[in-house]
Predict the structure.
Amino acid sequence: MKPYKVIISGGGTGGHLFPALAIAEEIKLRNQHTEILFVGALGRIEMNKVPQAGYKIIGLWIDGLQRAVSLKNLIFPLKLFLSLIKSIFILLRYRPSVAVGTGGYASGPLLFMASLFKIPTLIQEQNSYPGITNKLLSKNANAIAVAYSGLERFFPKNKLHHTGNPIRKSISLQKYPRKDAKAFFKLQPDQTTLVVLGGSLGARKINELVASHLETFQKKKLQLIWQCGKLYYDQYQKLQSETVQVIPFVGEMDWLYAAADMIISRSGAGTLSELCCAARPVLLIPSPNVAENHQYHNAMAMANEGAALVVEEKNLERDFEEVFNQLLVPDRQKEMSKSLKKLAQPNATAQIVDLIEGLL
C-alpha cells in the first residue's frame, strides 16, 4: 500500500494515549513511510509522551466539562470554539487520508471537523461504558472499534467492530522470562512479587492502602513493585527497601508484567487489556473519579468472567484483607489466569489498523 497521512487524536490520560501510540506503532510497522500527526490537549500527558515516542504532535487548548460547579466551565465554550477553528487549520494544512480518535478532550473537535470535511474517521472506544466525546462523534464516524460487547446501546450497530483494545506489541508478545524481569527491577528471582499500579499519576487511596499494609505483605513474604505515581513519589520513596521498589512511573510495562506474580490495579480499559495478555492474577480497585464510573463497569465485566477480584474504593477498609487473601489462593490464581487468557485479544491493534486501511 502507498504511504498515506494519518491524524491520531486522543489523550488526556494514559488510557486514551497508549492505545493511540499502539495504533501508530502498527501503522509504521506496515509502512514506515506513512506520515502520522498526533493532535492532543495542551498541558496533558500526550504533549510529552508522544514526542518521546518519536511522533509530531499539535496541542489544542481544550478541557472537558467539569462535573462539579466550576469556573472552568465558563470558558469551556471559548476553548471549544478556538479548538474547532484550530482543527480546521490543521486539517487544511496536513490534509490527512484518515483521522483516528481514541477518546479524550482533543479528539472531539478534531474528529468532528474531519467528518465535516468528509475525511474518513474511525473512533476507538476502550470502555464498556463510553465517554461523551465518542458518543457524540459516533453519529458521523465511518467505523467504531470497541472492546466490549453490548455497545449497540450507545453506538450505531452497523458501524461497530469488536476488536478489543490496542496494546503495545512488546506487551502482547510477552518475551521476557520472569526471573530476568525480577532481576531488571533488582528483586529476588524466587520471591513472589506483587505489582501495584495506580495509573500514570498515581492513586491516593491505593497508595495509602499499600503504605498501611507493608507489614502484612512482608509477613506473607511478598516483594513489591509499587508504582505510586509522580504526584506521590516524594511522599512514599522513603518506604523503599530491599523488598519494596517504589517507582513514580514505569515506562517498561512489558518488563513489569513479566516480573509480576500478582497485581493490584486500577481498572482503566487499556490497563485491563494489558492485564488480560499478561494473565497475572489481579485485584482491581476501580477509580470512582472518572466519567460515567466506567472503571467500575470495566472491573465488573472482568469479575463476571472470573478474571479478576474487585474491591470498591469506598469498601477498602472493610473488605481489602479478605479479598486480598483470596488473591493468594493458588487454585484461585490458576482460575483467574485461565479466564484472563480467554479474554485476551493480542491482535486488536492489527484489526484496528485493518479497519483504518479499509477506510482509505
About this structure: The chain has a mean pLDDT of 92. The chain has two domains: 5-165+346-359, 171-343. The longest strand covers residues 35-41. Residues 171-343 form a domain with the Rossmann fold fold (CATH 3.40.50.2000).
